């Protein structure tokens, strides 16, 4: 690549790296780990990136706690259960404790029930194959087995409330 018609890419440093960090955070919420990886992909120096990410976190431009809450709400809207949400938090290298308060406020039974009704209707499945299908569906979505069994056998309001 000696005589490339394209100019060589400049590696972002200093104010250029800072502007890039702000530009990334203006578009989307990132975890510390994700932001660091994103900035390193531009060829920036590791020490400089770590310093910048730490500074952005101290000034509250970047927050793993905010990212955890946003990710939790997003996953719930997509019909995901506790196990899948913890998996998503781990993927973004976020401590699940950061979203624990919001996590504890969620009624997982109600989430699973509304998901089951949306997909299969409100009737209780009597056919073992249909019941197994519902169980597999809710397991894949990340719900615990005790919640799944309550949802699959749920008859109405008088059952659990």
Descriptive account of the structure:
Helix content is 65%, strand content 0%. The protein has ten helices and no strands. The model has no long low-confidence stretch (mean pLDDT 86). The longest helix has 14 residues, at 14-27. The protein has three domains: 14-58, Orthogonal Bundle (Arc Repressor Mutant, subunit A), CATH 1.10.10; 64-105; 108-160, Arc Repressor Mutant, subunit A. Helix 4 runs antiparallel to helix 5 and helix 7 (108-120) crosses helix 9. The radius of gyration is 22 Å and the shape is elongated. The protein has helices at residues 14-27, 32-40, 46-58, 64-77, 82-91, 100-105, 108-120, 128-140, 145-152, 157-160. With 161 residues, it is mostly helical.
């Amino acid at each position: 690549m000696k005589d490339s018609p394209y100019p060589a890419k400049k590696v972002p440093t200093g104010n250029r790296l800072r502007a890039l960090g702000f530009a990334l955070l203006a578009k989307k919420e990132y975890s510390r780990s994700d932001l660091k990886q994103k900035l390193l992909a531009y060829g920036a120096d590791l020490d400089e990136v770590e310093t910048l990410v730490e500074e952005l976190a101290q000034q509250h431009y970047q927050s793993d706690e905010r990212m955890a809450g946003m990710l939790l709400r997003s996953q719930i809207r997509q019909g995901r259960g506790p196990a899948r949400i913890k998996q998503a938090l781990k993927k973004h290298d976020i401590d699940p404790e950061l979203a624990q308060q919001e996590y504890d406020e969620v009624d997982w039974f109600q989430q699973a029930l509304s998901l089951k009704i949306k997909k299969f209707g409100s009737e209780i499945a009597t056919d073992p194959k249909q019941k197994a299908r519902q169980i597999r569906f809710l397991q894949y979505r990340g719900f615990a087995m005790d919640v799944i069994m309550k949802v699959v056998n749920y008859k109405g309001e008088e059952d659990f409330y």
